[in-house]
Predict the structure.
Amino acid sequence: MTSLFDRFEAAFMPNYGVPPVALARGEGSVVWGTDGTEYLDMFGGIAVSSLGHAHPALVGAVSKQVATLAHTSNLLLHEREVELAEKLLELLQAPGKVFLANSGTEANEAALKLAIKYGKTTGRSYFVAAEMGFHGRTLGALSLTGKPSIRDQFGPFPLDVRFVPYGDADALAAAVDGDCAAVFLEPTQGEAGVVPPPDGYMARAREITRAAGALLVADEIQSAIGRTGHWFAHQADGYLPDVLTLAKGLGGGLPIGACVGFGPAATIFEKGDHGSTFGGNPVSCAAALAVLENVDLAHVRVVAAELRDGIEAISHPLLKGVRGRGLWLAAVLTEDRAAQVQAAAQRAGFLVNAVQPDALRLAPPLVITSAQVRSFLTAFPSILDEAADG
Ligand SMILES: *Cc1c(COP(=O)(O)O)cnc(C)c1O
């Protein structure tokens, strides 16, 4: 009998490689493979499954909506999209306007088109982004993406994007002048390995862009929706961007993205400037509303501290330390053995993500329990032992 893995390899383009596990179902922070193996999900489908798997509120909201009205197009409006935009603005506590898309990269395409239009109307011609940053795979977002391995072979790109070292405010100040249309930054770099900037960096970026008249676009596609213990990472950093992009955790597993403009940036798009057939579809909006009603920030902070403190307390020659914010951490290794740790963790019943050769990303569902965190912490030293030997 041909395995699911062989069938995957035969039927799919090779861009993902063949994943190591085939999942069948999940409940809370636990998932089961097609062979019945149980795993603790410690990376939440890349910080997406905010409510975990099969959360009753998400199941209920999505089931009800799909049985009522699944699609309208944007030629007609529906209640869920209005409720969702209002709820986002309420949580953001700032006057703004929302555009809904289907994914992270599309949220950034919307932000980029806003920034291009802003540049054209104010005589600004270039963009600034960070080295090793990740903003998505479609061509506009890719042109802002600083990771050479995913960017370089698809260039050159038609936009003038200048890259600065992440976290270096002086380099940013030197790169941004009155010709700069916009600066795109992640508040913590996710795909680079959950790398937070030095304290005060994003607030400095806000000052620098404001002084130069450039837009500041905060890509919170991975950092928002409670992931850091705050609804949005920028709220803890004490600044408001001009444009904010969201996706991943917002739909709790249903595809949705959002681009929010604040102040004058809220109305850069005029009628006809942008659109999406599926963007803000009722089912994804119902899912996002269920997420926003059920994420418990106090719980996130408690279990996040338990996870961080627990990793910090482990003394192991392969473990250098832990970085990140909230339930969005990287266990940093002393050697490039993240792939071996991921494999050893899988054998021990834990799904983690080797986000960099020397870093494991931990971004579990926000509903993970203290007992589940403890079970991972108890197993982690022997997982590291096995990866160090293997
Ligand atoms: C994942 C991610 C994206 C791209 O989102 P997709 O939904 O995969 O298109 C963009 N920016 C950041 C910071 C991300 O983490």
In short: The mean pLDDT is 97. The longest helix spans residues 370-389. The longest strand covers residues 319-325.
